[in-house]
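If you are new to this repository, start here. Below is one unmodified record pulled from the training split, so you can see the exact layout before writing a loader.
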Amino acid sequence: MSRQKKRVAVLISGRGSNMLALIDAAGDPNFPAEIVGVISDNPDAMGLTTAASQGISTASFSRSSYASKEAHDAAIDAELTRLKADIVCLAGYMRLLTPDFASKWAGKIINIHPSLLPLFKGLDTHNRAIESGMRVHGCSVHFVTPELDDGPVIAQAVVPILPGDDSDTLAARVLTVEHKLYPLAVRMLATGKVRMQGDKAILSGVTAEGALMSPGAAPDAIDIESLARMTP
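And here is the target side for that same chain:
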């Protein structure tokens, strides 16, 4: 008997390119999760239209419609409960979550951040990496905790910083691997190959290649199957 797919809800604020990467991955019958809803704090988010065109349930909760952050998060929490979400993925969701919300969903809510955490938490990560003199950069998928970009790291992808890079060219290179790393991390969580325990991400049955992607200077040439090998 096939294992029941985990139910994934995605939170976005904008165009949702990582959301679309997850939707595309979930289109594979062998992917262990399904996207059951997309939620945004921005009623005009392009990603809502994209998700709806894929037949996915959408909902928006404008922050200005609620008296407090707590009330806003409570409305989103109610929608996640209605969707019976097993996993919540932040994909360009540009609001800080309240501690109560983050704690309630601990171990079930993850985020993708455009840096090699714990380096460069927060915004403007690409320019900061260049200015710091780094020779590599990348992205991280991590469990969400009440502290900003501070949860245990599930998986990371590394790209080079090339001579002449600016924040735009580096961001484009990182985004390419973000779209491959996020589905990999969701697969790990949905199949029980990673879990949060305290302040650690505990891996089980995952090869080194399954937790780190190192595509070098040509991310378009990544063989995701070889990089994402996992033992049974």
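Two things worth knowing about this chain: Residues 135 and 161 are 5 Å apart (CA to CA). The first helix runs from residue 17 to 26.
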